[in-house]
Design brief:
Blueprint: H1 14-24, H2 33-46, E1 50-54, H3 57-67, E2 75-79, H4 85-92, E3 96-100, H5 111-117, E4 122-126, H6 137-144, E5 149-153, E6 176-180, E7 193-197, H7 200-209, E8 214-215, E9 228-229, H8 240-250, H9 253-271, E10 277-278, E11 293-297, H10 299-302, H11 306-315, H12 331-337, H13 345-353, E12 354-357, H14 365-379
Parallel strand pairs: 2-3, 2-4, 4-5, 5-6
Antiparallel strand pairs: 1-7, 6-7, 8-9, 10-11, 11-12
This protein binds pyridoxal-5'-phosphate.
């Protein structure tokens, strides 16, 4: 019996297990020197000056917005086509989440729509590099001007590159960039997240916020035990156990992305020309790490529902997923912020057709062939 092919999955090998075991056999298992090494390595990869690793990407988004110390009642804008953590981050800090529509080709926040949503109250924008494809960050920076902060949500985009070839996370056009190391992401630390920044001030603030607001480096302190709580914080530490896995995985990032892109190229080649299918578009001037392979299926033209397609593929052990139900259509957002169906038409049209096909580096050529054969059968 064939094992289930999921839409995404981690790839853990013996070297990862050995790296974690080394930490477990040592004296320090919570946040310590291995976390510092993980942060240094993320800085090397991205070119950012500072990095703070955190319990997960949601915690990273929470702290990133909170660290900006924005007055309550102001507004933050993000794409409606994201995991809800991106927009919840505004709400945690008392900001109103304003959701923007997507570019129908890239599925990223649409600068033209974003422009219309900037008001006197806008204080921060979170562009999400959906599926690994970098947003038009320079354009967004130009729209935002100098006063509006930008936090890039790069949960999908470690290893991706902007128009100028620089790595996502360098924070050239943003205050901070947030990563997630959840198992379906390009690399994993089990659970985990990180923020990169070039601001020493934000870095110091974030470091204390992840340990309940504690600051230990106090000039002329009365003794070694002394620390001060200088702001509100949380326990959002990432342990050395997780970081050992993260470092080990980071060493394989290039190989993981190469394999992802090989699978993408094969899907693109073999699925081209199917009349009901639109293949994912990669802007020619950027490099996507391809966290997801999102296809658009014209279910009306096919004469079958998405549910039928998903269930038929599941019968032959092929898992698929939908990324994402637009955030503005979620009951909580409708109730609290008055969103309605029809508000963001590009994203709603996209949602009606989106289906993420299996994509992960451990996927074998035979598994790719199995997906292709069955998908073609289902869609013809
Ligand atoms: C775009 C995006 N932002 C943020 C997150 C939150 O990351 P985490 O699951 O590590 O909390 C995710 C995770 O799925 C995500 O896809």
């Amino acid at each position: 019996m064939r094992r289930q092919i999921p839409y995404g999955s981690q790839w853990i090998d013996d070297s990862d297990v050995a790296a974690v075991a080394r930490v477990l056999k040592g004296d320090l298992i919570t946040q310590g020197p291995v976390a510092e090494e993980f942060e240094r390595k993320i800085c090397e990869l991205t070119g950012a000056k500072y990095c703070v690793c955190l319990a997960n990407g949601t915690a990273a988004l929470h702290l990133a917005v909170m660290a900006l110390e924005i007055e309550k009642g102001m507004e933050g804008i993000t794409s409606t086509n994201t995991f809800v953590a991106s927009s919840n981050a505004f709400i945690y800090s008392g900001l109103k989440p304003v959701l923007a529509d997507i570019d129908p080709r890239t599925f990223n926040i649409f600068p033209e729509d974003l422009k219309k949503r900037i008001t006197k109250k806008t204080r921060v924008i979170i562009p999400v590099h959906f599926a690994g494809q970098p947003c038009e960050t320079a354009k967004i920076r130009a729209l935002a001007g100098k006063k509006i902060h930008i936090i890039e949500d790069a949960a999908h985009a470690i290893g991706s590159k902007y128009e100028d070839g620089s790595p996502v996370g360098a924070c050239k056009h943003s205050d901070m960039t947030v990563f997630s190391f959840h198992p379906v992401k390009t690399i994993t630390s089990g659970e985990g997240g990180a923020i990169t920044t070039n601001s020493k001030e934000l870095y110091e603030r974030l470091k204390s916020m992840r340990i309940c607001g504690v600051v230990r480096d106090i000039p002329n302190k009365p003794g070694p035990w002394y620390y001060e709580v200088q702001r509100l914080g949380f326990n959002y530490r990432l342990t050395d156990i997780h970081c050992a896995l993260g470092i080990s995985q980071l060493g394989k990032l290039g190989a993981f992305i190469k394999r992802r892109r090989e699978i993408v190229a094969r899907y693109n080649k073999e699925l081209a020309g199917l009349p009901v299918l639109t293949l994912p578009y990669e802007r020619p001037d950027v490099f996507s790490a391809f966290h997801l392979y999102v296809s658009l299926i014209d279910f009306k033209a096919l004469g079958k529902s998405r549910k039928w397609v998903i269930e038929t593929l599941l019968k032959v052990n092929i898992g698929t997923q939908v990324h994402y139900i637009p955030v503005h259509l979620q009951p909580y957002y409708r109730k609290e912020f008055g969103y309605r169906k029809g508000d963001l038409p590009n994203s709603e049209k996209y949602y009606d057709q989106a289906l993420s096909l299996p994509l992960y580096p451990r996927m074998t050529d035979e598994e790719v062939a199995h997906v292709l054969k069955n998908l073609k059968k289902v869609l013809s």
